[in-house]
Amino acid sequence: MALVTHASTESGPPPAVPCILVVFGATGDLTKRKLIPALYNLLKGGLLPKEFAVIGLGTTDIDTDEFRRRISTEISAFATAPLEPEAWNWLAERIYYVPGDFTTSAPYERLQPVLAEADRKHGTQGNYLFYLATIPKLFCKIVELLGAANLTQQENGRWRRVIVEKPFGSDLNSARALNRDIRKILDENQIYRIDHYLGKETVQNLLVFRFSNGIFEPIWNRRYIDHVQITVAETVGVEERGRYYEEAGALRDMVANHIFQLIALTAMEPPGSFDADAVRDEKVKLLRAIQPMTPEDILSRSIRGQYGAGLIDGQSVRGYRLEPKVSENSSTETFIALKVAIDNWRWAEVPFYIRTGKRMPRHATEITVQFKRAPFQLFRRTEVDRLHSNQLVIRIQPDEGISLEFGAKIPGSSLRIGTVAMDFEYTKYFGNKPSTGYETMLYEAMQGDLTLFNRFDGVETSWAMLTPILDLWKALPPRSFPNYPAGTWGPPESQALIERDGRHWRIIK
Ligand code: BG6
Fold this sequence. Notes:
The chain is of the alpha/beta class. The protein contains 15 helices and 18 strands. Strands 8-12-13-7-14-15-16-17 form an 8-stranded mixed beta sheet, sandwiched between helices. Strands 3-2-1-4-5-6 form a 6-stranded parallel beta sheet. The chain has a two-stranded parallel ribbon with strand order 9-18. The longest helix has 26 residues, at 242-267. The structure holds 6-O-phosphono-beta-D-glucopyranose. The site of 6-O-phosphono-beta-D-glucopyranose (BG6) has 4 residues, from loops.
């Protein structure tokens, strides 16, 4: 993987190769909030090629001038770095717009001359990166029409790649069908299934942390680790995304992709190299080792919740069922906790407890690796009668960092033990780099590095594990929703899930 090598070189990574980024869904949220600000950050970081252009396709009937005007206004709200007019103008002058309905051939015909002109004017050499930032049901049709317009064929050294946003399918069958259909048109190595969690620095750092430090790998297994917890907590509700979320729910929205990727990176075996397929082989191997759940397992090891009205940061907020475009008796889950078992030599009998929810008291994504207790409780007679277990906490966001907690003697004449931490904070060492989380993914796709993108078998394996849960939940609609007030850590059953094993969720302050 390029990034790992970059980190150790002094000169930093080179600009990406010449290309045009073609965004389907250019008037949508993702483009203005993430993609354009990410391109600006890449430009400022010296990572955009000089030979570059963006062509946006959207259903809104406007021309390039109007699109540039809109984007130039919106960027001030969404940029993560101060805008420098000269740099912004450089980028804005390379942005074009083609209107049309993507399910018909007309916009693809209109796109051809715009691509040719941009190639000529900006020297982009016929390399096209298509980004499907549309609603998922259009993914397949767009790829078909790109193929029919002869825009997916790679010849004479020119490449054609397609970034597919999440969600990739909504269950095993739909993911399989989508894979099958787009692979009729594209080679697997032209397909970049994106999961923006893999673009986060701390997520990538998991691999570096595990595999470039000799001290952790020997203890990274069932002999020393008691269990692992993964929490992805958000304080926000569903905001304006009710229509999408009603169909998705927390399991499809967060677990099938982001959380399973975090499990895979935490638990996979060391790959033979950082080549895309070597890393992806190991990730898929791990995902395949996740124990399938029987209906009884699902009933006892999965907890779902939906937020009701409550308080976030002292402000009252409404319940999920009163959010815009949400049904008043919705049974969509906004919280899920799961106990996951991994059937392999490294992880047998080491549970992975995961939980994710909207309207939690804190915004925090973290992985906690809890080590086993010291084998003999020497300090039984002191004021602290139980030694704390060592915890390694990998904070993905916010406050990115890693801390290792251990027991230390509290100064004084009696023998008292407190928990202290060795703490590494990203920003202290590396400063604050403006980021939307999409920079790395765009850069890697331009460079043709698939390591951080999901392969078809990884996606299907995740759905194979989760689809039985979706099916059972559908058959047994929840009776107690809403079952947690906004601003709490989910329904009480989530605590019970871990506490009945004699363990506790880490308290996130
Ligand atoms: C998205 C989900 O993939 O991830 C959202 O669709 C969620 O519901 C978001 O809010 C969280 O991403 P991040 O980067 O803010 O943790």
